[in-house]
Fold each of these.
Amino acid sequence: MPLNPIRHPMAIAAGQLDRGLRRRLAADLRTALVRGELTLHYQPRVRLRDGETTGAEALLRWHHARRGSVPPAAFIPVAEGSDLIVALGGWVLRQVATAAAARPWLGRVSVNVSARQILSRALPGQVEAALAESGLPAERLELELTETLALQEGPEVAAMLARLRDRGIAIALDDFGSGYASIGRLRRLPFTTLKLDHSLIAYLPGQAADLAVLRAVRDLGHALGLRLVAEGVERPEQRDLLAGLGFDEAQGYLFGGPVPVDALVPDALPGLAPAAGSPTVTAACP
Ligand code: C2E
Ligand code: MG
Ligand code: MG
Ligand code: MG
């Protein structure tokens, strides 16, 4: 039996999916939305100073009728190959805004945005529609952009993002340090938040040189007025070290992995469990 290229971890980088499979996945993805195969999971983000949950990142999940679970690393690049990602991105924004509006204690929700959504100029309209339909305050939304997008940016993109930021929406540079970082770009686009890629965190506590890199990123980020968030925090030593260095927030399996929306209850989120005797904010679905 040949390896299932979707499940085999070495083959899922979409560039390695053969063209036939890519085409089939793209076709299936078009119907996945109406078939209800796509869902969002949410991963908590925690303030390092006091361990309180400050919000959650929405992450797409695809349960394919025949193939089972297909990871975002396989299907997001496929969707990004066409305007499908624009429609998908709009759907994600509406879903997340609605879920967050119904959960006022959840804090700020982060949505990953693809370059094509921005370059197609669809993003501002999608954001406004999602906020208007749900009633979610703009201050409770964050958009996460990757460095690959920043590579293509021009003054028009910067102006579009600045208008969103001026509405109160947080703008994060995702996966910082994963390979394409340019420090100049941090100044050219109106970011409010810097998310450090898990590759910078994975080997911590690590060596003196690893710490030197983190200190430099911290100083740069804070000098630019950015909120610094570490991704992929899996161990208590990493949390303690990042807290000691003065990083603001963290995300990772240590605090909780991505979970379905019904599992998003204060009791299950770090720092949000209601004090004894206070009324339960909401009940978990069975
Ligand atoms: P990302 O935005 O950098 O999301 C973080 C990824 O790290 C998620 O993978 C998450 O499940 C994983 N993760 C969380 N905690 C840990 C940890 O402690 N250790 C490690 N090693 N990993 C951790 P996931 O869910 O497979 O998503 C992969 C990527 O797919 C995301 O990376 C994002 O770039 C993209 N993606 C997911 N949902 C969407 C979406 O709605 N729209 C777009 N455009 N892209 C999305
Ligand atoms: Mg992200
Ligand atoms: Mg990331
Ligand atoms: Mg990523």
Amino acid sequence: DLAPLQFQPRHAELKPFVRSINTLLSRVRNSAERERALIADAAHELRTPLAAMRVNVEALHQQSTDPRQRELMDSLLRSNERATRMVAQLLQLMRSDATADAGMPSSLRLDTLVQDRLAEFDGLAAAAGVELELVATGPVTVSGDREGLVSLVDNLVDNAIKYSPRGGTVHAALERTGTEVLLSVSDQGPGIAVQWRERVFDRFFRVPDQVQSGSGLGLAIVQNVAARHGGRASLHEGAGGGLLVQVALPLAPGQGSD
Ligand code: ADP
């Protein structure tokens, strides 16, 4: 019964109340921590069987000459790829929630990292009939965790390709401004209506009624990784009419406004 406490808020009487609030808070914290660990473990354990499935289906695909069977196996491989990507996204988010597990920061070249990641998407872009372009202004070094930044870039490029029309171009650009580097990725897709722009950074949120499949985790990862590096992510209208996502990251020390 809290009524007497409310009327006589003497210090000594508040103590047990504060104590039980603290106990409650630590229980909530522990259960959130357990939930995070459970999701991270499950995601981690799912990686191996998913990889085994892929290898086996690929082997069957190579042996089969039946077009119907090959079609079904192509569809299995696409589903496997989606599940693998979602598991990787969950792991990335759960790891970055636990500061202890987040990668150690090191000095790394963002321009070459972006270039390498774009090269990895060549096949996917070609299959989607999308052109990839990078405009970078020389070497740019940031202090960060490579795995997190790779995931940030991958999610931006993957989205830009996924939401691009066939024949469209995805532009990636790096630009230094004073103490920051601005990474932008833009496409010529439908963009995101203003009413959803705040919410698309939420975990699992997806704009309703869209044809493309996805997990709703990509932009949450982008924002989370940017924030962890002392940066921020924002959405804009692209020059080509689509979406432009911009990520600002602090430059590594010693690279200031020279
Ligand atoms: P996912 O793409 O897996 O659904 P994201 O978190 O990456 O999840 O994106 C959240 C939502 O934002 C998407 O469902 C989509 O509606 C929208 N979105 C993200 N990137 C783009 C883009 N480049 N063009 C248009 N819409 C986008």
